[in-house]
Amino acid sequence: MAMAADSSSRCAEKSVWVLARWQLETRAHGDAINTAARLESANKQLGTRICASESVVEQAPGFRGRPIGTVMLVGKTEGIKVFEPLNNETVEAPAIKAYIAAFNKLEAGDPAANQAFANVIGQYGDDPLSTFDLRRILAGETGIRIRLQNKQPGASLRLKTKLNEPEQI
């Protein structure tokens, strides 16, 4: 009898261990899928087609793209650095280089970031990501930390891309 009890307790321990491991793996996969879904949703507000998290970028040899910022996703306690993947030709375009220069100003807390993003839009035409960042700045936000909302910050502003002046609507 002692052997049967010993065997069943080992079986129960093994079952608990397997279940706990399965739950951890499921949560890890679930978190990655959840983050990917939230980043996909973020594209609508950011004006991008694809967002890649820093962890994805680190695993992609030769990644080419531009920084978007540190996005605060619902359900996350820490921000996620996010990038927009671009092809080799696009990443070398003057408009993208001007965007990156404006982004670097925003990241450094330089007040000239406002004008830098306005210049990107005025000189190279409508870039949805530059417009998003300029709207954030005009709405009083600073830095690269982005809190996504149901409504875009500064959504009541329409930008005149030729004159670089905000217009109330």
Descriptive notes:
The protein has 169 residues and is an alpha+beta fold. It has one domain (2-168). It has 6 helices and 6 strands, in the order αβαββααααβββ. The protein has helices spanning 2-46, 54-58, 88-91, 94-108, 113-124, 128-138; strands at 52-53, 65-72, 80-85, 145-147, 157-160, 165-168. The strands form 2 sheets. It has a 4-stranded mixed sheet with strand order 1-3-2-4. The protein has a two-stranded antiparallel ribbon with strand order 5-6. Helix 4 (94-108) packs antiparallel against helix 5 and helix 5 runs antiparallel to helix 6 (128-138). Residues 8-12, 14-19 and 151-165 have low confidence and may be disordered.
Attribute tags:
alpha+beta; single chain; two-stranded antiparallel ribbon
Quick structural gist:
The protein is 54% helix and 16% strand. The protein is of the alpha+beta class. The chain has one domain.
Structural category is: alpha+beta
Helix content: 40-55%
Gyration radius, in Å: 23 Å
* Mean pLDDT over the full residue set: 79
Largest β sheet strand count, sense and barrel closure = 4 strands, mixed
Query: How many domain regions?
Result: 1
Low-confidence stretches: 8-12, 14-19, 151-165
The count of helical stretches stands at 6
Strand order of the largest sheet: 1-3-2-4
Question: In one word, what is the shape?
Answer: globular
Q: Let me know the number of strands.
A: 6
Tell me the series of helices and strands, N- to C-terminal: HEHEEHHHHEEE
Q: N- to C-terminal separation?
A: 83 Å
The share of residues in extended strands comes to: 15-25%
